[in-house]
Amino acid sequence: MDFIGYRSDALGAAVDLVNAVTAAKDEPQASDALRTILVEHGFLARRAPASVEPALRAWARRLRTVFDAKDVREAAIAVNALLADVRVEPHLSDHDGEPWHLHYAPPEADVVDRLRSTTAFALAMLVSEYGIDRHGCCAAEGCNRVFADTSRNAARRYCSSACANRAAVAAHRARAKEKAKQS
Q: Where is the Zinc finger CGNR domain (predicted)?
């Protein structure tokens, strides 16, 4: 599902940024993990300088507020706060041999500002179209990662299939244990 018609995966970038910053303490995190996300989601063809890491980390913490929202009003307030802090200036661009496509930041914006405006706009589209039904925090016990559901059935509640599988196994074992107690 394409939420904003942009050539990068802005919604995926928002999720990956938040998860990179809020990863569990026992998960190893590469020193350039946030800059790698820029490349992986189509914001850059090559790595950004290390100097962008603090800005990306701060923005990821801001994005988290949308995923943590308990209701649509709280999510809208969080999105509006993001949008108030970015410069959104939509325009068509055909840079680097790409076909014409929409950019949300002004042409002179650096990569961090482009990421900020695009991810804020992606979350605004997500919340305006689906409320809080398609994003949130992972339902797995002890996981603090986030997800955005782009599936057709909108049934996702876990950040990954690994968390979904662990939760299913734990639920199965709990049911089996309860059944054994009753026998």
A: 135-175
Three-state secondary-structure class, residue 146? strand
> Degrees (nearest 5) of the Cα angle 74, 133, 120?
55
Q: Which domains does the chain have, with CATH numbers?
A: 10-135 (1.10.3300.10)
pLDDT tens digits, one per residue of 120-167: 999 999 999 999 989 999 999 889 999 998 877 777 888 888 898 887
Dig out the tokens for 69 from the structure: 């929202």
Cα–Cα distance measured from residue 75 to residue 120, given in angstroms and rounded to the nearest whole number: 12
Extended strands (E) in 91-178: 91-93, 101-103, 135-137, 146-148
∠ CA(178), CA(162), CA(65), 5° rounding? 100
Average pLDDT over every residue of 62-80: 98
